């Protein structure tokens, strides 16, 4: 259980709204994002909120310091994510299949199902063929996305690599929902910004590859990339904003210039992917 989930549980036990629980320490908007795992909460703010509502801080915090099983699960989840990404970037299909076999032996929680879906999509990415996905895997991936009630790091990651499984009508609806949810993108963590940027980039590339143009979502995707916090972790998002702006406006000289920049910085694989 995360701190956000614990706060939500305690708030519901107290019968309070998010505004009442935030108690002026945080804005309702910020507090809501803490509950959803989109923002972190400072220790001093957490302790103040607990004190205001007469919640024993030691008992509340004990579940995070002593719940070794949950901590172990979190560590294991992170390790699997790293192993999957390592296998993908080394194009190691055998390793991905081994990980999927291990996941099938785990209790099928929402997190495990999400990991398995990500593994299935990474296999598709390596083989560059969405048709290799079994009907069962395709249903699982699509179902996890369509069942999403609140976008978080896990389902954003899954959707960013599952875009080829959706038709353009479905994609338009989904990306509009995401870009609306994260329109104030700079107020979110760097990790969330990176996930949303990946969705914008992959959606634009998908639009380009299939020669499909929807001006509304094109503008939404470009705008959210341009609005990303100007930090080192968002450099690629900013470059891609310039690249796709040039592509869709027909500025061939600008496109060549950006592709040359990427090649000069050792990103030949990305250039080849962009060129399709």
UniProtKB/TrEMBL annotation:
Annotated organism of origin: Lactobacillus xujianguonis
Segments forming domain HTH cro/C1-type: 7-60
Pfam families, per the entry: HTH_3 (PF01381), Rgg_C (PF21259)
Xref: InterPro entries: Cro/C1-type_HTH, HTH-type_regulator_Rgg, Lambda_DNA-bd_dom_sf, TPR-like_helical_dom_sf, Transcription_activator_Rgg_C
GO molecular function, one term: DNA binding
Lineage: Bacteria, Bacillati, Bacillota, Bacilli, Lactobacillales
Protein's name according to its UniProt entry: Rgg/GadR/MutR family transcriptional regulator
Listed transmembrane segments: none
Keyword Hydrolase: no
PANTHER family given in the database record: TRANSCRIPTIONAL REGULATOR (PTHR37038:SF12), TRANSCRIPTIONAL REGULATOR-RELATED (PTHR37038)
Gene3D superfamilies with a match to the protein in the record: Tetratricopeptide repeat domain
SMART domains: HTH_XRE (SM00530)
Key words of the record: Coiled coil
Coiled coil feature spans: 93-120
């Amino acid at each position: 259980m995360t701190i956000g989930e614990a706060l939500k549980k305690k708030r519901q036990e107290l019968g309070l709204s998010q505004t009442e629980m935030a108690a002026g320490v945080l804005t309702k908007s910020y507090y809501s994002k803490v509950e959803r795992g989109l923002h972190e909460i400072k220790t001093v703010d957490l302790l103040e909120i607990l004190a205001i509502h007469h919640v024993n801080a030691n008992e509340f915090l004990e579940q995070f310091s002593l719940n070794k099983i949950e901590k172990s699960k979190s560590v294991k989840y992170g390790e699997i994510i790293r192993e999957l990404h390592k296998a993908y970037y080394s194009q190691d299909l055998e390793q991905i299949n081994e990980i999927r076999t291990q996941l099938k032996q785990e209790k099928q929680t929402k997190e495990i199902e999400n990991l398995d879906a990500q593994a299935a999509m990474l296999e598709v990415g390596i083989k560059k063929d969405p048709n290799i996905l079994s009907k069962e895997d395709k249903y699982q991936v699509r179902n996890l996305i369509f069942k999403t009630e609140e976008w978080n790091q896990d389902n954003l990651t899954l959707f960013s690599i599952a875009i080829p499984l959706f038709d353009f009508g479905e994609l338009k609806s989904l990306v509009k929902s995401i870009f609306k949810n994260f329109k104030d993108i700079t107020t979110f963590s760097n990790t969330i910004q990176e996930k949303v940027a990946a969705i914008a980039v992959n959606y634009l590339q998908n639009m380009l590859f299939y020669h499909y143009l929807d001006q509304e979502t094109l503008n939404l995707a470009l705008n959210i990339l341009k609005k990303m916090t100007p930090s080192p972790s968002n450099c690629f998002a900013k470059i891609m904003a310039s690249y796709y702006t040039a592509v869709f406006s027909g500025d061939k000289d600008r496109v060549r210039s950006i592709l040359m920049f990427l090649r000069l910085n050792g990103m030949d694989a990305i250039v080849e992917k962009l060129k399709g």
